[in-house]
Write a structure and sequence with these properties.
Layout lengths: L1 H14 L4 H5 L9 H24 L36 H21 L5 H4 L1 E4 L3 E4 H25 L1
Antiparallel strand pairs: 1-2
Helix pairs in contact: 1-6, 3-4, 3-6
Length: 161
């Protein structure tokens, strides 16, 4: 939980003070804007929350070996975002971005805080597009690790603007 909070604060600090133009400007056609990266984070957190819930409710949910999820932070390893988490092209205000990020985080926390026995997350898994069957507790870690990856991307984008 501490990592989730710290990473989200880092993200919000990274984007606060950016103008509408800075948020929505793409360095080139093949690169997302800062707003698109944030929209991607919103979409991903929602999908991760749904995946964790699905993994918990699956009757045949099996235990999986831990995966090297910390690799998610390594930006030298390129990954193509699955279509369901690719951001749209619409421009976004900082206020809307913040609202979306709060919305996806609140959805996750609402679910997570209702879990009486969080150790069950180590016992069940669901399939991740890059790591395969991954224990659900590592899906929780992936929320902030993935966000950390994209904070680095946002810094790169800002340096190119």
């Amino acid at each position: 939980m501490e990592n989730l909070t710290a990473t989200r604060n880092k993200l919000l600090n990274e984007i606060s003070g950016l103008s509408y133009e800075q948020l929505n400007q793409k360095p080139d056609e093949s690169t997302w804007s800062v707003a698109q990266v944030c929209h991607h984070l919103y979409l991903t957190e929602n999908v991760f929350t749904q995946a964790i819930i699905y993994g918990l409710t699956k009757s045949n949910g099996k235990k999986a070996e831990p995966k090297p999820v910390q690799l998610a932070v390594d930006r030298t390893q390129k990954a193509k975002a699955p279509d369901m988490v690719v951001p749209g092209d619409e421009s976004l205000e900082l206020e809307k971005i913040t609202e979306l990020l709060n919305q996806s985080r609140n959805l996750f926390l609402e679910f997570y805080n209702q879990l009486e026995d969080k150790s069950i997350l180590k016992e069940k898994s669901t399939k991740h597009p890059l790591f395969g069957y991954t224990p659900l507790d590592q899906w929780v870690d992936l929320i902030y690790l993935h966000e950390e990856r994209h904070i680095q991307q946002i810094k790169e984008i800002k340096s190119l603007l």
